[in-house]
Amino acid sequence: MSKPAMIHVTYIETTPEKLWEALTSGAFTKLYWFGRRIESEWSVGSPVRFYDSADDSLTDSGEVLVYDEPKMLAYTFKNEVSDGEQVPGRVTFTIEPRNDTVVKLQVVHDQIAEDTVEGWRNGWGPILANLKTYLETGRTLQF
Fold first, then answer.
1. What is the DSSP letter of 4?
2. Nearest to 30 by CA among 46, 50, 11
């Protein structure tokens, strides 16, 4: 039996290449991920790290599982600032072009404890809304 999952699907007016850049570029993630900068060499097995822009502290970490540009990206994901032991979950981004100007983005965060699904959903919602808004308008939402 697989562990519960948070699943989010959205449609974004952008290209697969621009969305891919938004997911893998630290300069880009800082714009919509509330100041968090992602860093990785982006090859299967390489580390993934997120840093807080306020003090450059490590906030989240993982390991690249799938790197199929610009179609699918997957990595383990562990919050480094939460209390207690934590088993890393898995985050998978699937990008599908719908036409020349719209892509479908599906984000699945799975292999997580059932009692954390709602918390992850509440965390991913604003991040993905900011991503969509930024790619479509060049600005982020004011939360």
1. P
2. 50
